[in-house]
Amino acid sequence: MDEAAARHGTGAPATDRSSPAGFVGCCRDAAATSLQETRTAWPGMTVYERFEQVVALLLTMLVAVLIAVALIHLMLTVLALVLSNFINPIEREVFQAVFGMIMTVLIALEFNHSIRGVLERRHGIVQVRTVVLIALLALVRKFIIIDVANAEPILLIGLATSALALGSVYWMMRDQDRRDAAEDGASSTSAQ
Question: How many independent structural domains does the chain possess?
Answer without folding.
Answer: 1
